[in-house]
Design goal:
- The protein has 1 helix and 12 strands, in the order αββββββββββββ.
- It has an 8-stranded antiparallel barrel.
- It is mostly beta strands.
- The chain has one domain.
- The protein has one helix spanning about 1-25, and strands at about 30-50, 60-75, 75-80, 90, 105-125, 130-135, 140-145, 145-155, 160-165, 195-200, 215-230, 235-250.
- The chain is elongated.
- About 20% of the residues are buried.
- Helix content is about 10%, strand content about 50%.
């Protein structure tokens, strides 16, 4: 009897220990107002080059440059962090636990401006000839006003951000406006995914701490080169991406 009682007490104690962490209540949902501001800038330059003399043939030449500035700005958006831990569930556009998330990211306005100038022609060869400048190619460069969704993914003190076209975006992309970007910018038509960090002054490990304001920031610059004109020239290119996402706690 004593042995059975001892075993029962031990099992109950073990069950209490095992159930302790699982039974711990998750933190209460936290309300925030979120704002996002970011910019990507790309610039490229192709110094003038020309083909070598080949008997009487004319020599082809080319040079050019271009750049792009892409700004993204959101208004103040309601965000509800639910669950707890380093990677909480986020609801956008509402502070209600019952209402569905209005979107899967922060609604933001974009301003995209791209320029691309490439000049080509022919120079006299060994037998002379005329200097010819080809007519400029038709492009669709210019300005766009796209609509975006900024999609954040939190992991403790780190935050990965993607900038995507919103479902109701009607701004067309560029189909004939050449841009050259470093390999770190995976696609000229997409920001890609970049991970920022929480301001060092904030000691919280995640969104469920006590800080009134959480500011995540990212900035990086890349450069590179690629051949141009069948290897006769080169194109220098660089890009900078910078963004800030701020969460302000609301009672």
């Amino acid at each position: 009897m004593k042995r059975s009682l001892s075993v029962l007490i031990a099992l109950l104690a073990f069950g209490a220990i095992a159930a302790g962490p699982a039974a711990a209540k998750p933190p209460k949902p936290v309300k925030f107002l979120a704002t996002f501001s970011g910019e990507r800038h790309i610039a490229w330059n192709e110094p003038r080059w020309e083909t070598a003399d080949r008997q009487c043939d004319a020599k082809n030449w080319e040079y050019g440059e271009g750049e792009e500035t892409w700004q993204v700005q959101s208004r103040s958006v309601k965000v509800l962090a639910v669950g707890g831990g380093a990677s909480p569930l986020l609801k956008f556009g509402t502070w209600s636990e019952r209402e569905p998330s209005a979107t899967f990211g922060l609604e933001a306005a974009g301003h995209l401006k791209r320029r691309s100038d490439i000049f080509r022609g022919k120079a006299p060869g060994l037998c002379g000839g005329e200097y010819v400048v080809d007519p400029p190619a038709k492009t669709d460069c210019g300005e766009r006003l796209p609509k975006h969704l900024v999609v954040p993914a939190f992991d403790g003190r780190k935050l990965a951000v993607e900038v995507l076209d919103a479902p109701d975006n009607e701004a067309p992309g560029f189909s004939s406006c050449t841009i050259f970007a470093p390999k770190e910018v995976r696609s000229p038509d997409s920001w890609g995914r970049h991970t920022g960090v929480l301001d060092r002054k904030v000691k919280d490990r995640n969104l469920f701490g006590r800080a009134k304001t959480l500011t995540f920031h990212f900035r990086d610059t890349w450069d590179g080169e690629q051949p141009a004109g069948n290897g006769l020239g080169h194109i220098a290119k660089e890009a900078t991406v910078e963004w800030t996402l701020t969460l302000t706690r609301v009672k």
